[in-house]
Request: fold
Amino acid sequence: MSVVSEAVPINNISREDYLSAFRWMLLARLLDEKMANLYRAGKIFGGVYLGRGQEAVSVAVGMALRKGDVFAPLIRDGAGRLAFGEPILDAIRTCMGSPLGPMRGRDGNVHRGHPREGLLPMLSHLGSMISVVNGILMARRYKGNDGTVGATCLGEGGTSTGAFHEAMNQAAVEKLPLVMLVVDNQYAYSTPTSRQFACASLVDRAIGYGIEGHSLDGTKLDACLGTLQRAVDNARSGKGPQLIVAKLLRLCGHGEHDDASYIDPKLKESPLGCDCMKLAETNILQQQWADETAIASWRTEAVQKIEEAVSIVQREAAPDGYKENWQALASKHLGEVYPEA
Amino acid sequence: MNSITYLEAIREAQAKALKDDPRVYIYGQDVGAFGGAFKATKNLANEFPGRVIDAPISEDAIIGSAIGAAIEGMRPIIEMQFADFSTVGFNQIVNHAAAYFWRTNVPLPIVVRLPSGGTTGSGPFHSQSMEAIYAHYPGLIVMTPATVEDAYSMLIEAVAIDDPVIFCEHKYLYYHLKADKLPSEALPTGKARIARPGRDLTIVTYSAMVHEALAVAEELKTEGYEIEVVDLRSIKPIDTDTVIASVARTGRLLCVGEAWPWGGVTAEVIARVATEAFDLLDAPPQRLNAKDTPIPYHPNLWSVHRPTSRSISDAARKLLQT
Reply:
C-alpha cells in the first residue's frame, strides 16, 4: 500500500481522522449494499433502509463520541454505528432475525442496540429517542457521573413531531449535554421540506430553545467531522444542548421498496446532491493522503469482512416460535396465563 | 397519627420509597415545591432535595426521560397530573416502555401514577379511568388500589417491581377514604381480595367501585341476600383463580367498572369466567360500566353516567332473581 503522507489538514481535520472516517463510511456503504442485495434476494423479512449519502455526517457523530457516551442512532446511521463500536454482526443478525443478535429476532433491521452499553435501539416513532437520551443524562448527573455526552439523530421530518419539541425543550431546561443532529435530507419519505416546515432553516429553532445551533453542509466530510466534534466538545464542557442541522440529499429511497421517483432531478444535480463518499475520496486523492490502490484495498478488505459475517449469520439457526418464551414482563410471576383454546 | 387518608398513604409510600432507595426519584408537573396538584408529593422536595423534580408540561418527554433513567439503573416515579393527560405520553408508555424488556432484555422499573376516575364537576378531561387501555398492552402491570392500605403497600411494591407499573389511584378516594394506620403487611400484587364474603352473588370490581359494591352488599343484606365482593386490586394481572373460586360459591357474577364498557376489565373478567368456569354459573354473567359517552360535567349527569350503589343494586337484584 503506498500512502503519501502530508500533514495538511482540510479545515483542521487530521489525515488520520479523515481516513479513519472514510474507511467507516466505506464499510457502511458496502454493508448497506449487501443488505440491499439480500433484501432483493428475499433473505430479509422486513424492510431495508440505507444511509446512502448520509455516511459523512453519520460517521462524524460516531467518531466524535467516546466510549461511555450514549448514542441513539436513526435509520440512516450505519456509518455512525460502526464508528461508535457496533459490530457488523449485530447489523446482519438483526436484519436476518438471528436469535443470536441483540434483538433475538424479536425486533429487526435498524431497531437494534445494547442499551446498557449506551447504544439505544430506536423506536419507529420519530422524536421519541431524544427524551430517552435526556433521561440517561439526567440519571448520570444525579449519580455524579458527569463528563459523558448523549447524541441522537433525526431527519428533518422528525422535527415536526411533538416529541421532538418536548424533548428539546426538556434538554434545554435541564441544560443537558445532548447533541441533536438533524439531517435535512430534503424528503421525509416522499414529503418535501416545503410541506414539512416554514422556517428559513431548522437551525433557527435552536434560538427558540435557548440552545446553541450549528449548520453545515452534510456532503462534506471535513465540515461534518469538525462541526460534530465541536458540538460534542461543547456539550461535554457544560455548554448545554447542541442542535446541528446538516443539509444534504438522500441518495436512495426511504427504504429499498421505494424507487424515490418523486425526488426532484434539479436537486440531484445541485451541490446538495453530491455523494459524500465520492467527495471524500476525491479529497483523499487530491491531498495525496492515499492513492487509488490503497482505497481499492480498503474496499476489498471491507467486502471480505462483510461476506464473512454474512456467511456466519446464514449458518445460524432461525428463531423457533414454539420454543420462544412468550413473556413480556421481567417479573415472570406477574405474567398473565391464558389457557390454550 | 389518628387517621390517614388514601392520598396521604400515597405520599407516605413515596416518602418511604425515596428514603429506602437512592435510585428512586419523582418527576412530574408541579410535584416539587408546590407538592403536586393534589398534594401527593407534599414536602417531599424539601425532605429529599434534588429528587422530586418539576417537569415542563411535556408528558411524552417525561415518560421518555424515565425510560432513559431506568436504563441507567434508576427507579423513577412519574406523576401524571391527571390520568387523562397520559394520552400525550401514551406512545412512550405503550410502545417504548412496555415493549422494552421484550425487545432488549433490559427491565424498566418505572411507576407511572395516574390520578384516575371521576369526581364532582371534573368533566370529560379530568375524570377518565384508563386502566383497560394500558392493560391491553403487553409488558405493563396495572394496579388499581381501592383501600388506603393498598394505596400504600401496592405503591411500595410498584416501585420494587422491575417492570413499568401503571398505578391508577382514584381521585375520589383521595380525601374520602381513611384508615387508622398504615399497614405493616399486604397481599402481593396479582392476588385479589375478598372485600366481603357472601353466598348468593359475586360482584367483581376494583378501585372506587369497591366501595359502591360494599354499600350495595350492605343494602341487600336487609333483603336477605349475601353478596360477595371481590376487589381485584390489580387488573393486570387479574387473579382469575379468586374470581372463579368466588363464582363457585355464589353461581352468579356481576362485574362493575367505572371505565367505559367496550373491551374493558369487566368484559375480560366475564370472558375468563365464561371460558374457564362456564359450568359454575347459574345465570348469565352481567356487567355494569359507565355509559358509552364522554364523562359529563354536571353532577346530575355524572351520577347517572357512572355506576353507583343505586344502579349496582338494581343490576344485582335483577341477577339474583334470574
Remarks:
- Residues 176 and 216 of chain B are 18 Å apart (CA to CA).
- Chain B has twelve helices and 14 strands.
